[in-house]
Amino acid sequence: MTQPVDPLHWKIKDLEALRKGVDVDTPLSREFLAAALLDSNTSVDLDQSAVVAKAHLDFQHDCVLCRGSLLGELSLQCQRCLAPAKVPVQASLNMTFVPAGGALPVRHDEGSFDPSDPDDVDYAHHDRETVDLRPVVREYLLLSLPITVLCQEECRGLCPSCGIDLNTSTCTCQQRVPLSPFSALAKLKI
Question: Which residues are bridge partners to 26 per DSSP?
Fold first, then answer.
């Protein structure tokens, strides 16, 4: 068996030939990270970001079991002050790839899943020829991101008037109280 060109894309026959499975330990490429984060509404500094996919793939009963993790750090843009924010990536990869149109196997031995617990493991399909980990790794990467990316928990953001970074400086702008749509009602006399 030869090592695949893309370590996240394997031929089923190669995995079937390996009795003890195969370990995958690969850094995610700049291109992969850029494409994965394209729709995440945040800017990424690819030069300061590094994420590694580590997993063990095992072929059992027409299924490919994937157990591993994503580890690393992304340099994203803070959503309040626009400064770089270091975001740790730590996500478990637990996926069982079943043949498209096939039934889920029922097994209860060590290291397998319990079909009575649907939250035990996630499922995806393979085409009986290859198993592609890229969509799964992308999904787990996106799920590992926080909803709000901040450079620090207490980030004060930018002044809405002059744009100065309130974490490093104090502005001299007069803070305007936003006009309420109900402020005209205060003048009514009942």
Answer: 53
